[in-house]
Amino acid sequence: MSPASSITNSPSSVTATSPISSPASAKSSIPLPTTAREGTPSAVPPATPTRPSTASPATSPAVSASEFLAEKLRNARDALIARGSYLGVTGVADGYRWERVGRTNKLVTAAAATAHREAQIEYAANPDSNPVPEISPAVLSAVVLITEDDFYMTSCGMWNGPTTAARTFADVKPTCTGAQPDHAVFANDFPAVCENITALMEKARTPGFKDVKGVKVNTGGSGIKIKFRHVLFERKDSKEDNHITPNALANVDREEIPRQFTMAEWPAFYDQAKEALATMKDTHNVNYLEAYDMHGRLIFPREYRTVLSGALAQIHFTLSHWSISGKGRIPSDVFAADVYSIRVLVPPKSRGGVTPRKRKFQNLDPMTPDISPKKLRKSP
Question: Model pTM?
Fold first, then answer.
């Protein structure tokens, strides 16, 4: 997906610099005494010889790795709050509204909803005026721990044949869930994130529909998780679909996209997915995931699981809603949190052991010395 220019995905970086000028620069700023004319007393008394200074040069105090990380995360949190769409702040849901776009409801800012209605009124009164612009969905933000046990946000969504959710590979929408962060800077914000999402969903509920599906996942002992999805493919000849997030690559020149992020070299891990992918190259485009590692670099599709699963990340997303009912169906309100972009704040903890060294053939145990008791000396 292509990031909008108004969205800044990466927090301010932390640069360790000393606020104290270096000794050389400080010395050059001191005015030197003027030499008196010959035969006249010196205008400035002769300088008294001084001993070389033994003081250590001024440097920044040492910062531990944990302190550096905490400051980095605080900077990220401050940037999210300043943006105004961070759900970790209580009451943020009050600033959003649901608007009908096509066959779904999209969450938008209250300001955008007001401006859109005013444009509609103006256009109705004066059809010769500018047409009503499309309303853009609001981009929300949350910081979560991306869980490992139900991570399906790979380049192929772990698809290996038809399922109830994706009958064809073109229908695949890779998903992942976010749990409460394991770092103190963001851990206490997670309840507010869940409360705001609940409040936003309540605004779109259909009267009489009791079942709610989609975003919040209650996993029992491990608490509530937030489910995110990514619309992976779109038809080349299609317009915006009813359940799909706005065309992420509509304003991107596809000629500039590296081949690793296109259908030409898109990776799939299962045979059925590979076979399906080969038949889709002329009919579909792939929406690569706008996911960035802790250094702000775009993650390659083959690395989605390695870099994202188990990471502490800020996820920017949009919310959609639609209702389902009918014969044989339980009337339900369905919500979807579509990923706009992801930025890793803390990478996953190391998984697996260190690659073992090459072994040499040993016909005797090299790790244990000879443990046989020494022979008893013969008595005289």
Answer: 0.74
Q: How far is CA 215 from CA 145, 199, 329, 348, 362, in A?
A: 15, 13, 19, 23, 57
| Pair of tokens at residue 292 | 């960035």
Q: What are 330's two structure tokens?
A: 């339980």
Q: Which two tokens stand for residue 263?
A: 């259908």
pLDDT, tens digit, for every residue of 62-108? 779 999 999 999 999 999 999 999 999 999 999 999 999 888 999 99
The DSSP 8-state label assigned to residue 218 in this structure reads: E
Q: Which of 55, 87, 222 is nearest to 149 (CA)?
A: 222
Residue 345's nearest CA partner among 310, 372, 303 is 310
Q: Decide: 227 and 146 in contact? Cβ < 8 Å.
A: no
**Rounded distance between C-alpha atoms, residue 335 and residue 106, angstroms:** 10
Show the tokens assigned to 65.
Answer: 């790795």
> By CB neighbour count within 10 A (0-12 exposed, 13-18 middle, 19+ buried), where does 92 fall?
buried
pLDDT in tens, 240-297: 544 444 445 555 667 789 999 999 999 999 999 999 999 999 999 999 999 999 999 9
Phi, psi of 220 (to 5 degrees): 75, -115
d(CA 297, CA 306): 14
Exposed/middle/buried for 328, CB within 10 Å: 0-12, 13-18, 19+?
exposed
